[in-house]
Amino acid sequence: MEITATMVKELREKTGAGVMECKRALTDSEGNMRKAEEKLAEWAGGRIEKKAGRATNQGVVETYVHGGGRIGVMLELNCETDFVGRNEAFRQLAHEIAMQIAAMNPLYISADEIPAESVDHPEAVALLSQPYIRDGSKTINDMIRETIAKTGENINVRRFARYELGA
For 53-111, what is each residue's pLDDT tens digit? Predict the structure, then answer.
């Protein structure tokens, strides 16, 4: 099957992958869009694991105020370079995570931080394990991994603070 520029463009818009990667995935999957998406996700998974150890010293401090000023969040989201820190996809991720913190009030960043004697479930108290408030089929960690695949850089939630009037 011939791979057209329209097919490559459509796959690129869906996944955020590079043009040549999209073309190769479509070629390998003989033009099947769903299989090409799966192939790109598989390739991205390997790249994400390689990036996990990289230092993240750049990024953004995102603030979010909700409920007419009753709830406020400050989030430090880190990446590898200031170029990605100014990227719209990265900034949107920071905003979405700040909204998640305001809505779900996590106590820890990851399940690893939960004390051994705690009876809390990670989905309830660990930010990265929580289902995303706008799409319960993915977690906050899944969203971060998707953005890592798009930007090509490691991304970490460094810290956050949530304030609520009267709490």
Answer: 677 889 999 999 998 899 999 999 999 999 999 999 999 999 999 999 999 999 999 99
Q: Whole-model pTM?
A: 0.75
Q: Same domain for 76 and 130?
A: yes
Query: How is residue 120 written in tokens?
Result: 């809390």
Domain coverage including residue 22: 5-51
Asked if 21 and 149 touch (Cβ cutoff 8 Å), the reply is no
CATH number of the domain where residue 85 is located? 3.30.479.20
Res 38: pLDDT? 80
Nearest to 21 by CA among 30, 10, 29, 12: 12
d(CA 32, CA 78): 36
- What's the CA angle centered on 56, arms 53 and 60, to 5 degrees? 150
Residues whose CB falls within 8 Å of the CB of residue 54, separated by 6 or more in sequence, listed in order: 80, 153, 154
